[in-house]
Amino acid sequence: MTTRDPGVGARRAVLALTSHDTLGDTGRHTGAYMSEVVDAWEVLTAAGYDVHLTSVLGGRPPLEAVDEADPRHRAFLDDPTMRSRLANTRRAGELDPADYALVFVAGGHGAAWDLPDDAGLAALIRGVYETEGVVAAVCHGPAALVNVRLSDGSYLVEGRQVSSFSNDEERAVGMTGIVPFLLADKLTERGAKYVSAPSFIPYVVADGRLVTGQNPPSATAVAQRAVELLDQSLSNTL
């Protein structure tokens, strides 16, 4: 493992978003879940991080459950920097992992369709993790982790405690027959030790520098835990 230079990317994070906008053949809209994006942005910005955005296809990614009347949603959408970055997201393969101390993968059901097979995102996640950065994901965001292999060939999630949107939650929202796979099962197939709480209760698990959360209400705590881990790591290098 390469030791991260604390001066490189030490206060820079990237939010990874899906570019998939349709729920299977239902015709219904999906995208990155807005509250998870906003929650992460607020925590990271308050902690002094410069927050960048990436998406599978680049350009403006679809957003799900945007509430124009919510002042927090409006603050994100009206922020000049984030408005520009949202309109012009870069593909993960165009980013240098050395520029970031943290990757935070937001959910939204669209993530199950396109995040697992985004080789550029997998490389970004691996690069940040293997240079002592933190990888965080929430709800369906852990779909980005299912095909991430480390340099030794092992899956990133193998042998680690990981959470994500649960099978019970998927059934509760009527999506088990629509999503391409059940995320909790897929993570387990990759060797993860899947853990969860009762449905729709905030739940976060950190295993080393991998932080995952079960559902949208978990997003704030996932980001907070990621910041804590990064602060500890930075303190240890000084």
- Give the total of beta strands: 10
CATH classification, class level: Alpha Beta
Structural domain tally: 1
Based on CA atoms alone, the radius of gyration comes out at 16 Å
Global outline: globular
**Residue fraction in strands:** 15-25%
CATH topology, anyone?
Rossmann fold
User: pLDDT under 50 segments (min length 5)?
Assistant: none
End-to-end C-alpha gap: 19 Å
Architecture, CATH level 2?
A: 3-Layer(aba) Sandwich
Average pLDDT taken over every residue: 95
Number of helices: 8
SS content category: alpha/beta
Helix content: 25-40%
Query: What profile does the largest beta sheet have?
Result: 6 strands, mixed
CATH superfamily: Class I glutamine amidotransferase (GATase) domain
Major β-sheet strand ordering: 3-1-5-6-10-9
The ordered string of helix (H) and strand (E) elements is EEHEEHHEHHEEHHEEEH
Protein model, in words:
There is one protein chain. The protein starts with 11 loop residues before the first strand and ends with a helix. It is of the alpha/beta class. Helix 1 runs parallel beside helix 8 (about 220-235). The strands form 3 sheets. Strands 3-1-5-6-10-9 form a 6-stranded mixed sheet, with helices on both faces. The protein is built from 8 helices and 10 strands. It has a single domain (about 10-235), classed as 3-Layer(aba) Sandwich (Rossmann fold).
Task: State the main characteristics.
single chain, 238 residues, alpha/beta, Rossmann fold, two-stranded parallel sheet
What is shown here, in short?
This protein has 238 residues and is an alpha/beta fold. 32% of the residues lie in helices and 16% in strands.
